[in-house]
Amino acid sequence: GGGEDDYFTTRWLYDNLALVMPRKVGAAGAGVPLLRAMINSNRETFAVILADLTGFDHLGDHLNAMELVDGVVLVANAGTSREEDLRRLDMQIPPEKNLGVLLLG
Q1: What is the pLDDT of residues 32-74, one digit of tens each?
Q2: Which of 41, 55, 64, 74 is the most exposed place for a label (fewest CB within 10 A)?
Q3: Taking the chain, what is the end-to-end CA distance rounded to the nearest angstrom?
Q4: CA 23 and chain centroid, separation
Q5: Which of the residue ranges 2-6, 46-50, 96-100 would you say has the lowest mean pLDDT?
């Protein structure tokens, strides 16, 4: 136990598209090395990896997790998410990785 397969779950949405997300929020710092291992071990399997970083922000790990990826999309609920929270998170994303905001709902 304790490996990346215990930490992440993969949900196949289509034959060629899978969503990889953490099963639970772990201790601060625990998810980043596992995310790195998951990305590295799946580079041959997936052409594109979409990782849900929900939970990483609660522990302050989102900045370290963003270093591992090529791009970041901030996803928010229209009418629920607060503009000030979106602006704060948007400013934390490095400009070269910031792909924008996606409002749902």
Answers
A1: 888 888 888 877 877 777 777 777 766 578 888 888 888 888 8
A2: 41
A3: 38
A4: 12
A5: 2-6
Integer CA distances (angstroms), 17 to 13, 14, 27, 51, in order: 6, 5, 29, 12
Name the token pair of 14: 């289509």
- What is the DSSP code (8-state) at residue 34? H
The helix, strand and coil proportions of the chain, stated in percent and rounded to the nearest 5, come to 30, 25, 40
- DSSP-derived pairing of the beta strands 17-22 and 8-14: antiparallel
Report the sign of the C-alpha dihedral through residues 71, 66, 55, 50, in that order.
positive
Rounded (5°) CA angle 8-11-47: 85
- Contact (Cβ atoms closer than 8 angstroms) between residue 66 and residue 95: no
CB < 8 Å & 24+ apart, contacts of 75-79: 75/101, 75/102, 75/104, 76/101, 76/102, 76/103, 76/104, 77/103, 77/104, 77/105, 78/103, 78/104, 78/105, 79/105
